[in-house]
C-alpha cells in the first residue's frame, strides 16, 4: 500500500470505530456507580451497642491484670531472694538455665553457572540460632542471637 492509501484506511477505521464505540462511552462507569449504590442500600446497619460487647472483654482483662498486680505487691513473699555475697561457693555451684532455639528456612536463589559452565540451582539455607540463659548469681538474663547462612548448589539437567 502506498502512503496516501494507508492514511485513508487509518481515517476510515478511526471513523468507523469512533462511530460504533461512542454509544458505549460512560456506560461502565454508570453501571459501577449503580452497583455501589445498591450495595450501600442493602448493607446491614451497624449496631450501636456493638461497642459494649467489644469493650467488655477488654475491661474484664484489664481489671484481672490490676487485681493480680495488686495481690503480688501486697504479698512479696513469693519474690526471689538474692544470694548473699559472702556465700560464693553456693553461687558457683548453681548451674545457669540455658534455653536454645534454632529456626531454619531454605530459599530458592535462582539459577547460576559454575566455573565449568555447569548449570546449577542455588539454595540458600538461612538459620537463626538463639541462646538464652539465666545467671543464677545475679538473676540476670542473657541472650545471644546468631544468624547463619549457607549457600548450596544442586546440579540441574539442561534441556
Please describe the topology of this protein.
Elements: H1 3-21, H2 27-42, H3 50-74, H4 88-93, E1 97-113, E2 119-135, E3 140-155
Antiparallel strand pairs: 1-2, 2-3
Question: TL;DR of this structure?
Answer:
This protein has 159 residues and is α+β, with helices and mostly antiparallel strands.
Instruction: Name the poorly predicted regions.
Output: 87-92
Per the principal axes of the C-alpha atoms, what is the gross shape?
A: flat
Number of DSSP strand runs: 3
User: Order of strands across the biggest sheet?
Assistant: 1-2-3
The topology string of helices and strands comes to: HHHHEEE
Rg calc:
36 Å
Judged by helices, strands and strand pairing, the structural class is alpha+beta
Main sheet attributes: strand count, strand direction, barrel closure: 3 strands, antiparallel
Strand residue content: 25-35%
- What is the averaged pLDDT score? 76
DSSP helix count? 4
Distance between the termini: 44 Å
Portion of residues in helices? Answer: 40-55%
Amino acid at each position: 500500500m502506498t502512503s496516501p492509501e494507508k492514511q485513508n484506511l487509518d481515517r476510515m477505521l478511526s471513523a468507523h470505530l469512533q462511530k460504533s464505540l461512542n454509544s458505549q462511552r460512560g456506560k461502565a462507569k454508570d453501571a459501577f456507580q449503580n452497583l455501589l449504590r445498591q450495595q450501600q442500600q442493602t448493607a446491614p446497619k451497624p449496631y450501636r451497642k456493638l461497642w459494649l460487647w467489644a469493650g467488655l472483654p477488654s475491661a474484664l482483662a484489664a481489671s484481672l491484670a490490676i487485681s493480680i498486680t495488686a495481690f503480688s505487691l501486697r504479698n512479696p513473699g513469693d519474690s526471689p531472694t538474692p544470694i548473699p555475697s559472702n556465700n560464693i561457693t553456693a553461687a558457683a555451684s548453681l548451674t545457669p538455665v540455658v534455653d536454645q532455639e534454632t529456626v531454619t528456612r531454605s530459599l530458592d536463589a535462582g539459577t547460576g553457572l559454575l566455573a565449568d559452565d555447569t548449570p546449577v540451582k542455588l539454595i540458600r539455607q538461612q538459620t537463626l540460632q538463639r541462646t538464652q540463659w539465666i545467671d543464677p548469681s545475679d538473676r540476670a538474663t542473657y541472650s545471644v542471637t546468631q544468624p547463619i547462612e549457607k549457600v548450596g548448589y544442586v546440579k540441574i539437567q539442561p534441556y
